[in-house]
Design goal:
With 332 residues, the chain is an alpha+beta fold. It has twelve helices and ten strands. It folds into two domains: 100 residues, Phosphorylase Kinase, domain 1 (2-Layer Sandwich); 189 residues, Alpha-Beta Complex (Aminoglycoside 3'-phosphotransferase, Chain: A, domain 2), CATH 3.90.1200. A hairpin with a 2-residue loop joins β8 and β9.
């Protein structure tokens, strides 16, 4: 795991990172009654299935070819084997049902819930994940799409009661665990030495990140599809309502994993260029706090590919925050 480097240091990720979790299952792994139930919902037998890349949820994430020529995308998880993921799927089903039809997001076709297994059934989106490392053309294309998406999702079309709390913050909680602090120092002494400053920044989440826009909340390359007709943003269980610049900053922080300086993009983007710099600092601190708390407190049973990605993304946030000047109140 990498130290937050200086401005002239190497990319945070010094080896390829998997963008797909290691706990996926295949269509044939589902219980027969679950397969039959999903086929009943889609109205045709499944003749083939292909697991799809991107994302770290356990369970099924497959494109199903149907006997009538249609294709649908299905995500499924068991409350017994992956209870948190099953709850994510239930939340995503509810959120996606509320998203505007014109927005470049998945279209919900139906769902399945037998009390144990939960599945969301979505229209196929033709496209592929962005390349890694990020390329300027693809990154710019996605950033342009986020401007339009923000307009589509303001005011938020989803009732707050359907949403979970934003996945932000964790520095103050880390100080309560000596073991977590030891593990944090092994990842980044820079953050361990400044944890009070980071905690002070994340304390201002409610004030500095407030807004009326529905945000994705987990906007990285593995949740984006590039198609011939546009950019689609998928996987919405972690959506929350806040300031429109937040998803742009989250996406740009991932560019730092590849050694790309996100600051010029932030200065130019319409959703970030006029934002008080301290508000960006608050988001970077809160986002890295969530990620690195996950990394330093995870049990050994957690998917190692998820921990590796969360570590790289958390350190990338810190890298950008370090280059901005930790907690600066006025930086242009």
């Amino acid at each position: 795991m990498a130290e937050a480097p200086g401005k002239d240091g190497p990319p945070v990720a010094d080896r390829p990172l998997s963008r797909t979790g290691g706990r996926r299952i295949l269509w044939q792994d589902l219980p027969p009654e679950v397969r039959r139930g999903i086929e009943s919902r889609v109205g045709a037998p499944v003749i083939s299935a292909r697991s799809q890349p991107g994302g770290f949820s356990e369970g099924l994430a497959s494109l199903l070819a149907l006997a009538d020529g249609r294709r649908v995308f299905v995500k499924a998880a068991s409350r017994v084997g992956a209870s948190a993921v099953a709850e994510f799927h239930l939340r995503e089903i509810a959120i996606t049902a509320c998203l505007p039809a014109a927005a470049p997001v998945p279209r919900l076709l139906g769902s399945y819930d037998d009390g144990v297994w939960v599945a969301g059934i979505y229209a196929e989106i033709e496209g592929c994940l962005p390349g890694r490392p990020w390329r300027h053309g693809e990154l710019s294309r996605v950033l342009d799409a986020l401007t339009a998406l923000s307009t589509d999702l303001t005011p938020a079309p989803v009732a707050p009661a359907l949403l979970a709390a934003p996945r932000l913050g964790g520095w103050r909680a880390l100080t309560q665990s000596a073991g977590a602090m030891t593990r944090l120092a092994a990842i980044t002494t820079w953050a361990a030495d400044r944890i009070d400053d980071l905690a002070a920044l994340e304390a201002d989440i409610d004030r500095d990140l407030a807004g009326r826009t529905l945000l994705h909340g987990d906007l990285y390359g593995f949740n984006i599809l590039l198609g011939a007709d546009g950019v689609s943003v998928v996987d919405w269980p972690h959506a929350w309502i806040g300031a429109p610049f937040c998803d742009v900053v989250t996406l740009l922080s991932s560019a730092s994993v590849d050694g790309i300086d996100p600051e010029p993009y932030a200065r130019d983007h319409p959703l970030t260029r006029d934002v008080d710099p301290r508000r960006v600092d608050v988001l970077l601190a809160a986002h890295s706090g969530f990620l690195l708390r996950l990394v330093t407190t995870a049990s050994p049973s957690v998917d190692p590919s998820l921990i590796e990605m969360a570590s790289a993304l958390g350190v990338a946030c810190l890298r950008w925050l370090q280059e901005r000047g930790l907690g600066s109140k006025a930086r242009r």
